[in-house]
Amino acid sequence: MSAPATSSTTSPHPQPDGAYAPALPGTGERVGAAVDARLIQVLQDYRRRWRGLVPASDELLDAAAQLLSGGKRTRALLSALGATLLLDGDQRELTLASPVVARTGAALELYQASALVHDDIIDSAHTRRGMPAAHRRLEVLHRDSGWLGDSETFGRHGALLLGDVLLSLAAEEMSGLAADRLVGPGPDAARRALARSAFDSMTAEVAVGQYLDIRSEVTALSAPGDDPLACAQDMHEHALAVVRHKSARYSVMHPLLIGALLGGVEPGTALYKALAVFGEEVGTAFQLRDDDLGVFGDPRVTGKPAGDDLREGKRTVLLSLAWRLTDDDGRHALRAVLAQPGATEADLASAARVIEDCGAREAHEAEVEAHLTAGLAALHGLEAGTMPEVSSRTLEEAAHALTRRRA
Amino acid sequence: MSAPATSSTTSPHPQPDGAYAPALPGTGERVGAAVDARLIQVLQDYRRRWRGLVPASDELLDAAAQLLSGGKRTRALLSALGATLLLDGDQRELTLASPVVARTGAALELYQASALVHDDIIDSAHTRRGMPAAHRRLEVLHRDSGWLGDSETFGRHGALLLGDVLLSLAAEEMSGLAADRLVGPGPDAARRALARSAFDSMTAEVAVGQYLDIRSEVTALSAPGDDPLACAQDMHEHALAVVRHKSARYSVMHPLLIGALLGGVEPGTALYKALAVFGEEVGTAFQLRDDDLGVFGDPRVTGKPAGDDLREGKRTVLLSLAWRLTDDDGRHALRAVLAQPGATEADLASAARVIEDCGAREAHEAEVEAHLTAGLAALHGLEAGTMPEVSSRTLEEAAHALTRRRA
Description:
Two copies of one chain form a homodimer. The first copy, chain A, contains 17 helices and two strands. The first copy, chain A, is mainly α. The first copy, chain A, folds into two domains: about 1-20 and about 190-405, Farnesyl Diphosphate Synthase; about 20-70 and about 100-180, Farnesyl Diphosphate Synthase (Orthogonal Bundle), CATH 1.10.600. In chain A, strands 1-2 form a two-stranded antiparallel sheet. In chain A, α3 (about 75-85) packs across α9, α8 runs antiparallel to α9 (about 230-260) and α16 (about 360-380) packs antiparallel against α17 (about 390-405). At the A-B interface, α2, α5, α7 and α8 of A face α2, α5, α7 and α8 of B.
C-alpha cells in the first residue's frame, strides 16, 4: 500500500491541508458538528426501536456507526449552503443551526454510507475510511463467532442488507423533515415535497450510474488492430457518463439542490438552473480530481490504497486520455495493470508514469479546470442580487475547495 | 423439481384456486389492473428519463419489468383496503379507482420487487415468479455479450444495483403521492407525511428482518448432547422474530396501515391499534402458511421448487415444531437436508414425511389458526360503527384468503 512513483508533493495543486472545511471558515465545522450530533441521535433511536432484536440489530448498527463516524460531510455542507442560499444575517445563522439542516445532512450521510457499503461489496474493497469495509467486518464477525457456512458469503450478504438498512434510514430521516419548520419563501409542504422527490431521484440515479460503471468495466478495451483513438474517444464518453450519473450530480448538484428546494428556491427559475449547472460541473471536476487522486494520491492522506482504480480496471476519463496520448508500449503497460488484481506495486508505478509522461495527467488537469470554470460561469451569469453576496462567495469557495483537495 | 411426497391435494385447506382475488369480488381485479397500469407508466417514465443511458438503462428496466409483471398484488390490495377503510358507497368506489391507490400500490410492488431481487441473491435462487431470477438474467446477459470477467459475479453485482434502483423507484413513487388529492378526514399533508414515514420504516424493518434471517441460518442446530427441546424452543422464538420482522408486518400490517393513514385513520386510535394487531397476526399466519407451502406446496402452483426452504436451511416455525416433536432418527433425517444444497428429492421427501408424521404439520396448522383468530378478534373487539360494515367484512375476507391460499 505504498504511494505510487509520483508522490503527491508534486501535485499541481499543492494545498496546506486536504480537508474541505477551511475554505468556509466556521460554517463547515458547525454544520459538521450538528450533523454528527444528529447521526448519533438517529442511531440511538434505532437501537431503542430494535432493542428486542439485540444482538443482531447491534451488529448492523455498530457497523453503521463505524462508517458514519468517518467522512468529510461534504454533501451535508452543500445541502446546508443550499438551504441558506436566499438568507442573510441572523436568518442564515439560525437556519444553519436548525434541525432541518442537521436532518437533511444526516439523511445525505446515511445514504452515502449505504452507497459505500454496496460499492465496497462490488469492488471487493478491504478498507473504507481507514477501517475494514462493512462486508469484511461482518465476515470477521462470522468467523469469530464460529458460525456455519462460508464467512465471506455471510459478510457479503450481511453488508448487502446493511446497505439496504442505511438507505431506508436515510429515507426515514428525510420523512422526519416533516416535523421541522422551514425558513424562506413559499409554502412549507410544497418545498418539502420537492426536496423529497429530489432526494429519491438522486438515489435512483446513483444506482443506475453504478450499474453503468460495473458495465463499463467488463466491456473489452480495444483489441489489437482496433483504432486506439476511436476506442479512447468511446472510453472518454462512457467515463464521463459514469462520472455524471454515479458521482458528479450526486456529490454536488443534488445535495445543493435538495437544500435549495427546502430553502425556497423554485424549480425553473434562473437561480435553480444556474445551481444545477454549477453543481453538475463542479461535481464533475470534483470526481475527476478523485480519479487523479486514485492514481497519484498519497494513501496516507486519501485513506485508500493508490492504484486501486487501475487494479479494478476503472474506466476513467484519465485513462481514456492516456489511451489516446500514449503509444503501443504505453498501452501495453496500462493493460498490465487494468483489472489485474495481481498487478504489483512496480507495475502500478510504471502505469502511473505512462499516464504522467504522455501528458494525460496534464490534459486531465485542464479538464478539471474547464468543468470548474463552466460551473463558476453559471453563477457569474446570474443577475446581481439574485442571492445575497455571502451565498455566491460561499459557493465559489466551495467549488475551489472541492476541486483542489488532496483527499 | 418434482413435488415432495406429500402432494398438495392432501392439504388441510383445499381451495378451488390459489389466487387471492376471488375472496374479494371485483375489488382485487380492479385494484390489480390500476396498479398494473401505473407500473407500466412508471417504467415508461424511467425509460424516457434515462434514454441517454441506453442500453444499460434498458437492461435494468427490462429486468424490472419482468419482475413486476408477476406477483399477486396482495400488498397493493391491502393498502387499497386501508385507504378506503373509512369510506362507503360512491366515495369508496371513487377512491379505489383513484391515483393515490394506484400509486401507493405501485410503490409497494416496486419495493417488493427490490426485496425479492436482494433476497434471491442471498438465497442463490434460480427462479422467481417462474422466470430466471434477476441475478441469473444479468449473468446470462454478461455471458451472451462476451463481456470480461466472471458472469456470475456480474449478475450478482448488477442485481444488487437493480434492487437499489427498485427501492429508489418505490421511494420516488411515494414522493409522487404529493400530487394526488386524498379522500377522508384530516389534513392532506399530515396524512401523507405519516404514510410516508410508515413506508420508510417498513423498508428499514424488512432489511433488519432479512439480516435476522441469514443470521439464524448460520447458527448451529443443536449439537449431539444438547437438549433438543430447549433447542426447539429457542428456534421457535427466533423463527417467529424473523417471521414478524421480515415478513408478517411487511406483508400485511404495513401495507394496510400505510393505506389507512392515507385514508385518514389516526395513529393512537382504537381503530389504528386494532388494524396493527390484525395486520401483524394475519401477516404471521400468512407467512406460516408460506412456510408450509415451502415444504408441502405444489411447485406448479407456488411457482417455486418445493423443499428449497429445507435445502437453504431456513429456520422456520414448522421446523422448530418438528425438532421438538420428532425423535433422534427424525432429527437425523432433517439434518440430512438442512442447508445441504446437495440434498436429493428422496432426502427432501423423507424430511417432509418426518415433519408430517411427527405431528409438526398439524401443530403448525393450529398455530396458523391461532394467529388468524387473534387477528380477527382485534377487529371484533372494535365498537360497532367504527368503520363501515363493508370494510370489516372485506378485512375478514382478506384474512381468510391470505391464510388459506395454496400459492
